[in-house]
Amino acid sequence: MSDLNADLVAQMLPVCEENADEIGAALMRGIDAEVTVAVGTPDTFNADQLPEGVDGPGLVMMMQFGDEAMAAILPEESGLLRGWVREPDITGEGMLNTLAQELSMLVVPDTMFSEKFGAMWVENLAQSLQDGELADGASLLPLELTQDGVTSQLMFLWPCAEPAKLLPPPKPKEEPAKAAEKAKEPPPPPPPPSPKSLTELPPYARHLLKISVPVSVRLVNKRLSVQEVLELGPGAMVSFDKSCDDTLELMVGDRIIARGAAVKVGEHFGLEVEEMTLPDEHFYTARR
């Protein structure tokens, strides 16, 4: 049974309420829209009674789960979409695709993972949903976005049986003359500044911080011949070149990340970090 079913609404409601602030932050990063987010009333899709703005242009985001997809649509009538969203450059495309990825992680339970995602401007949202084979009676969960006292809706709809058809095919490359004319247009807003702390990382990045990695402290190492190893036994002495005052190496996997001195923490061994070690840089010769 597909995860994109009517029962998903009840699971998404508390997730969206909990992540409302993060959803707002994602929209700020993705389309430069400073909004407050609230969860609207769930409904079902009816092609004969389209929600306001759906029978017109706007932004459609596709989040694929298995063989089906969830669509997130934001009509142009919302007033939240800036001009560059209609025909974004490479940077703008990356921002929109990242927005789709972030939303795919913020609106559904942690047990679900979007295998493919994307975002694109379309001239008719209803036609895009029809191409993606969203049937009448499909689930619809709106998020209410409020900016300067005006409220619009970001609508999530599922399931779309044809994820590949939900987004239109990429447009062919333009002629140089037309491209030069567009180069004169104002560029999209710059990407957001780098986070100053781990708490400012986007949600999809913060998930990586939960991964456990092996950490060890290396005292010293040397190479011995197989014969020397076989001759080892109780009472044997193995000498090393390292001084007793030299620092120890803190390692993650097989990479040194810091150096420090051994200390006693209660009844246990510890390491007081004295310096961090930057990763090795690799340079390659450029060939013509």
From TrEMBL:
Transmembrane ranges, per UniProt, are none
What name appears for this protein in its UniProt entry?
Flagellar motor switch protein
Keywords tagged on the record: Cell projection, Cilium, Flagellum
* GO molecular function annotations of the record: cytoskeletal motor activity
**Which PANTHER family does the UniProt record give?**
FLAGELLAR MOTOR SWITCH PROTEIN FLIM (PTHR30034), YOP PROTEINS TRANSLOCATION PROTEIN Q (PTHR30034:SF6)
Cite the record's Pro residues compositional bias ranges: 186-195
* Chain ranges of the Flagellar motor switch protein FliN-like C-terminal domain: 207-276
Give the GO biological process terms.
Answer: bacterial-type flagellum-dependent swarming motility; positive chemotaxis
Q: Where is this region: Disordered?
A: 166-200
Compositionally biased intervals (Basic and acidic residues): 171-185
What family is reported?
A: Belongs to the FliN/MopA/SpaO family.
What GO cellular component entries does it have? bacterial-type flagellum basal body
On the tree of life, the source organism's domain of life is: Bacteria
Name the InterPro entries on file: FliN-like_C, FliN_T3SS_HrcQb, SpoA-like_sf
